[in-house]
Amino acid sequence: MGTTLTHSGRASLIFLGVTLITFASFSCQPSPPSNANQNARVETAAPSPAQIVIPPWPTGFPSNMPLAAVSGNIPQQVLLPGLGLPGTFSTPLEIRPYFDYFSWESFIALNWPAATGARGVPNQPNNSSVFLNAAAGTPVVWGTYKDSFDLFGQKDQRPSPWESNTSPISPCANGQPGAKTLIFVSKGNTPLMETKQAFSFPLVDQQGNYVYYDIRYDQAQYNFIRGQEGQPSTYLYLLKNLAPAENAQFGVQMPMTTAPSPAPTPSATPAPSPASTLGSIMVKAAWRIKTDKDDASRFYTTAAQTLDPQTQKCTPVTVLLVGLHIAHKIDPFTEWVWSTFEQVDNVPPDADIKPQPPVPPNGYSFNNGTTNPSTTGGYSYKPAVAATPSPSPVQVTRVNPIPSTPAGQSTREVNAFYQQLLKGTVWQYYQLVVTQWPFNPGIGQGNPYMLMENGGVYPQNAGSAFPVNGAVNTTMETYFQTQNDAAGAGGNSCMSCHYRAGQSDFSWGLNRRAH
What we know:
- The chain is an alpha+beta fold.
- Helices cover about 15% and strands about 15% of the residues.
- It is built from 9 helices and 11 strands.
């Protein structure tokens, strides 16, 4: 069973159906709760003509590239030659622009203004003006997803249902119910360590403020981990239930997005996405505190509250989005598709870009614009794990350039296209750093995937990840930009690190925080 992407697009058509069988046959968990949002109050999509003229892809891009869209519908298929599109391919590099297209379309849909009265529902997803004219700080779709604290911070209490705006245990006694809460680390770590990077150290911006992180799960993944009501053995946030599932041959297998039928054509505007077909989506965001020295018009901003665990008091702040990881388990990519974005003012641009863009009007968020202090491995120093009152800024540089290949259709060119498309919005100031995906996907009998615990080796037993290394975000893997620095974490890429949590379906949150 299982077919590789390495031969041709024709082979891709075969393994789409095979992966569906594999997922159904070898998932080690009971069927997840329904992803249908039956109680949601969804705003009706406006039946209006397109509000934006989508230009064709520039000369040099593949002729079968799907037409870009400003849509609130999360993509349910990675369109590739032989997989929804005409043509064939032989190497992963050839299909990078298609994955970068998928990443950008996902980024737009997840950052679409959210409908009121429901989680994870876009407001008028087919009306591009809703996105293009959104007011500053408008709640976005992914921001309405459930926070990791809702699952793993509830101690002996049952996590609240998906639609609930409150949880039995709140990290902030004096906070506003339902407000974004970012947990501050002072002496020692909180259970979720949300000013501390994964397996790493805090990051301090040029204003001397800590960067905060939150991790959110969409409805399919949240409900799967929360388990089915009245069936305690399915409550995977409890270690006693998670451990047996992880010890199965292929570990935990979360719900996977499946493509709608019929598949869209290259020139078609995506149809509304039925919620029941959306699988697991994990989102991790990096935020820094807004100061009077910042130009907020260049950032997505939102209100939040930060917690000092010593005083248990929350402080209201405005935060700026500086980094966004998106992981989507989408058929046939059983090892997930990984997309990571940054705000363009984070660090200086790659040195090979000529001419060099000017320094941002208010400077870089994580670099003082000089070579002093110098950086080794992309950073000047590692702050203490325990937060201090007046930390020094960390000087950050990018070690792994944003991909410039394939020539004329690289990630850089895709960024330029979408930044122009979204001109006039805060989203023009964001860029895709890299997309990483399994080139030879498939979990189940006859496929190369193997858990590390069973002797698996990265990348060949992890879906043959592409690119193999160097897929990092300067705000989230600041101290893991080189292979040497990242050796203890499994490697300097999303998939190499998360492969170590393969028994939890690549989810470190589930792997480390079940209790």
